[in-house]
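Q: Hi! First time doing this. I have a protein sequence and I read that you can turn it into a structure. Is that right? Here it is:
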Amino acid sequence: LSICCRTVEPLEYYRRFLKENCRPDGRELGECRTTTVNIGKCFCSITTADGSALVKLGNTTVICGVKAELAAPAVDSANKGYIVPNVELPSLCAERFRSGPPGEEAQAASQFIADVIENSQMIVKEDLCIANGKLAWVLYCDIICLDYDGNLLDASVFALLAALKNVQLPLVTINEETGLSEVNLKQKSPLTIRKHPVATSFAIFDDTLLIVDPTAEEEDLAAGTVTIVTDEEGKLCSVHKPGGSPLTGAKLQDCITRAITRHKEVKKLIDKVIKSITPK
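A: Yes, that's right. Below is the predicted 3D structure, encoded as structure tokens:
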């Protein structure tokens, strides 16, 4: 009967659980799925990346590789480098996605990541400048979903942060005589990460009920979703709500409060992993 109901009337099936303050997968409404992160070449197998990380949020699996290249700064931003995020949802990660050019969801996710980078100031573009008007770093941040089961944004922001924390850039100078850049691969230094944004997503059921870290099925059944991004100081970096049911001020504040708590959990996890791979 339960299987039939889930197939024929999935929303009513979910409501039976929500009334008992739980979900079909056994989680409470405010409980996130098991979260794991692996950082660096030895874990992610991206030997060509300057920084990489793999994040699992339940069954949702996202990998991020950061590639650093040299380029001339833009004329109107002579003292700034570039950060170019790109989210890919290949057909292998879920049946709902097709091969070919980036779909609407992938494009929206890429724009969301770009907004998070800009609004949080996790990396200040001036820090990527090597020589004013002459040379700067370009960080290509490719985020690829390997297995999709909802909540792509939380996993993507986490993978991006973890990968950037892992980046080591070589020392680059410009030879005054030749005007050419010289790269010293033996002398590397980490990126300056000024803020640590963490995203926390919620699905809205029946206009009032909020569940954290929704699965793909929960996202499809929900009346809307909202993603809150906060930094380590508890400051609000971004609120992303692509349509759907409206939220009251009180409900939004509840989301922000819970997002701040989630930030502490994620930050603790990433610090633990980085400490474990740091040479003593």
